[in-house]
Write a structure and sequence with these properties.
Blueprint (H helix, E strand, L loop, with lengths): L1 E3 L2 H13 L4 E6 L5 H13 L2 E6 L19 H10 L4 E3 L3 H4 L18 H4 L3 H16 L3 E5 L3 H13 L5 E5 L19 H6 L2 H14 L5 H13 L4 E10 L14 E9 L2 E9 L11
Parallel strand pairs: 1-4, 2-3, 2-5, 3-4, 5-6
Antiparallel strand pairs: 7-8, 8-9
The structure holds adenosine monophosphate (AMP).
């Protein structure tokens, strides 16, 4: 695995591969890698000639009171995992090379960025789209891989790529989970033993809500009420930031679930903020035959 730290060298390396007709798959991450990240690397390996993984903890997407300084860092462990997954290039630039003095440009996808996590983390998604746009310009991938775990992020990036004619394919990959259903996340390492056990309530809530909808409850208020009740029954859930059912294209709350829907949750377990979601397609109920 090649380690590249300088954006100009990354760019030249990518151009070289593209000129030789090789496709490039790109997996942007913030490191502290787990099986979720590695599943994206494997998918990219299967679909491209060259796989580039970036590790960059992007200061622009953290609010002033958020966990930028505490965010888990494990460069050595990450490199072992990436070698094991047979990644071709690790791009790990320094903050000063990505955001030099007098950096003035931001990329913003309106509307979608202001919903769900955007309400609680103002400015977060413009930080995400700005860094992803920069990384895409440097790495020049044929395809870029994102996890459904961060569903809102994935559709915002899809929209940016489409709106700005960035000319690559955005591939959204399934959420990888722990044995009890908790979505893998670098932030799970913040949880103590009790909190870790309690955190499984999030996936249980999503699954039970799916069952509820399958049983014929398709009304927004009942579904939202059920989700909030399930989550608040767990004493270590200290805050419910959102828990509801949304249109997966617009992220507007759905009044009636009569089409594909996104169940999405953001809570704090202890002090740790966790998010998860599930996409559901309601089964159409056949009306009983009469007469
Ligand atoms: P992060 O390092 O948290 O910024 O995540 C980098 C990429 O990995 C993003 O596209 C995430 O959506 C994706 N990712 C994170 N956790 C998971 C997971 N449990 N399953 C699948 N993809 C994930």
């Amino acid at each position: 695995m090649e380690l590249i730290r300088i954006p100009r060298i990354m760019k030249d390396t990518s151009i070289g591969h593209l000129l030789h007709g090789r496709s490039i798959g790109f997996v942007p991450t913030m490191g502290a890698l787990h099986e979720g990240h590695l599943s994206l690397v494997r998918r990219s390996k299967g679909e491209n000639d060259i796989t580039v993984v970036s590790i960059f903890i992007n200061p622009l997407q953290f609010g002033p009171k958020e966990d930028f300084n505490e965010y888990p860092r494990d460069t050595e462990g990450d490199m072992v995992k990436l070698k094991g997954a047979d990644a071709d290039i690790l791009f790990m630039p320094d903050v000063s090379l990505i955001y030099p003095d007098k950096f003035l440009t931001y990329v913003e996808v309106q509307n979608l960025s202001e919903k769900l996590c955007g309400v609680i983390r103002p400015g977060h998604f413009s930080g995400v789209t700005t860094i992803v746009a920069k990384l895409l310009n440097i790495v020049k991938p044929t395809r870029a891989y994102f996890g459904q775990k961060d569903f809102q992020q994935a559709i915002i990036i899809k929209k940016m790529v489409k709106d700005l004619d960035m000319g690559l394919e955005v591939v959204v990959c399934p959420t990888i989970r722990e044995h009890d259903g908790l979505a893998m996340s670098s932030r799970n390492s913040y949880l103590n033993g009790e909190e870790r056990k309690a955190a499984s309530v999030i996936n249980r809530c999503l699954n039970q809500t799916t069952e509820l909808i399958k049983s014929g409850i398709i009304n927004h208020d009942q579904i939202k009420g059920f989700m909030e009740k399930k989550l608040s029954e767990e004493p270590l859930v200290t805050e419910i930031q959102y828990a509801s059912v949304y249109d997966p294209d617009t992220l507007e709350e759905l009044e009636i679930i009569d089409k594909e829907a996104l169940l999405a949750v953001a809570v704090r377990v202890g002090k740790t903020r966790l998010i998860d979601n599930i996409l559901i397609t309601p089964v159409r109920h056949l009306r009983p035959l009469t007469g």
